[in-house]
Write a structure and sequence with these properties.
Length: 367
């Protein structure tokens, strides 16, 4: 398998910029998910890696080789489409074997590769059935089998689970990740579903309006979102963002939110307008809390609940234990776990650097 490198990749369609000045490295054997809303540029990026779209400018390297101007068939990649793109009049065996026949691979080797892929995907029992009558899950496995037998340098997948129902999609997430580990494959996977991304990815690349906003491990993306957009897009419920009173000087350890003093990690930058970001699970119901509000809604989720609390600074979501009992209209005080508070420039939407931010799960230090 191979590393994929994008250098200053740019794509325009007439007056519309689909992908702008993207730099990205997909490590050898990594499962990387391009994540973002519809129209963010993730599928266009994938199609440029595949050779199905040519970039307006920039470079694409696979295993160190510049493939920017090469046709798709010259790049030694396998592409799995959302709609499977199978031949309904052919059997499963012939669908899987089709790309090998086009490459004039010897018949004995074709049979061996197809049998090996079918065993890996647990579809030996349907090899002689036509694909037109198969379930969505079986057709997905056939499409994956057709990609696997090629033994490509990289697998590219464009929302391959998008047509499946929720329960089966969750199962297929686990199957795809297991398959990736078995093959030690380099995989680039496109989705707009953060649950898929969190379940499968080694690295997540969050995109919006043609730009890469943040790339990193799932826990890093979740706990230290680089922008307000990432904090809103990742997480259910999303991160809370509250306006900070007045400008903040570098070195501050406390900010005011509608007059309430909130302790924050040592901040290394100054800003005129700030937003305080805090995940709902790091909001504490605290009788002595400086920020006051009242409960306006309660979403019970079995193992926990999410309270919607109206404050003078805006609505705050707090994730609390299922045992908490607070009726609508109940007054509450709120405090925030200091080490989990993040500050964002309200103008650019980007996170301000702090002296030390330690990931409690990994021990990694972030600035």
């Amino acid at each position: 398998m191979s590393a994929i490198t994008l250098v200053n990749l740019h794509k325009r369609f007439d007056d519309f910029t689909a992908v702008r000045n993207t730099d990205l490295v997909v490590g050898d054997g990594r499962f990387v998910v391009l994540l973002g809303p519809s129209g963010c540029g993730k599928t266009t990026t994938l199609r440029m890696i595949a050779g199905l779209e040519l970039p307006t400018s920039g470079q694409i390297l696979i295993d160190g080789e510049d493939v920017t101007a090469l046709r798709a068939r010259q790049r030694d990649i396998a592409f799995v489409f959302q709609m499977f793109a199978l031949y309904p009049h052919m059997t499963v065996r012939n669908n899987i074997a089709f790309p090998l026949k086009n490459e004039h691979v010897p018949r004995r080797e074709i049979t061996a590769r197809v049998d090996a892929a079918a065993h890996m995907l647990r579809i030996e029992d349907i090899l002689d059935r036509k694909t037109g009558g198969l379930s969505g899950g079986d057709r997905q496995r056939v499409a994956l089998g057709r990609a696997i037998v090629r033994q490509p340098k990289a697998f590219l997948m464009d929302e391959p689970l998008g047509t499946l129902d929720a329960d089966f999609r969750e199962l297929m997430c686990l199957e795809l990740r297991k398959l990736h580990d078995q093959l030690n494959a380099t995989t680039v996977y496109v989705t707009h579903d953060q649950s898929e991304a969190m379940a499968m990815a080694d690295d997540i690349v969050v995109m919006n309006q043609g730009e890469v906003l943040q790339a990193g491990a799932p826990h890093e993306i979740y706990h230290f979102p680089a922008t307000v957009f990432v904090g809103n897009f990742i997480g259910s419920p999303p991160m809370n963002f509250l306006p900070v009173d007045g400008p903040v000087a570098a070195g501050t350890t406390q900010v005011q939110v509608h007059g309430a003093g909130i302790a924050v990690p040592h901040c290394n930058a100054a800003a005129e307008r700030l937003l305080l970001g805090i995940r709902p699970e790091h909001v504490v119901i605290d009788e002595q809390g400086a920020l006051r509000g009242k409960v306006i809604a309660d979403e019970f989720l079995g193992s926990h609940q999410v309270l919607m609390i109206e404050t003078a600074a805006g609505v705050v979501r707090a994730r609390v234990g299922k045992e908490v009992r607070l009726a609508a209209g109940a007054p509450v005080g709120l405090s925030f776990r200091k080490e989990r508070v993040l500050l964002y420039d309200a103008m650019s939407g980007r996170r301000l650097p702090a002296a030390v931010l330690v990931d409690a799960e990994t021990g990694d230090v972030h600035g």
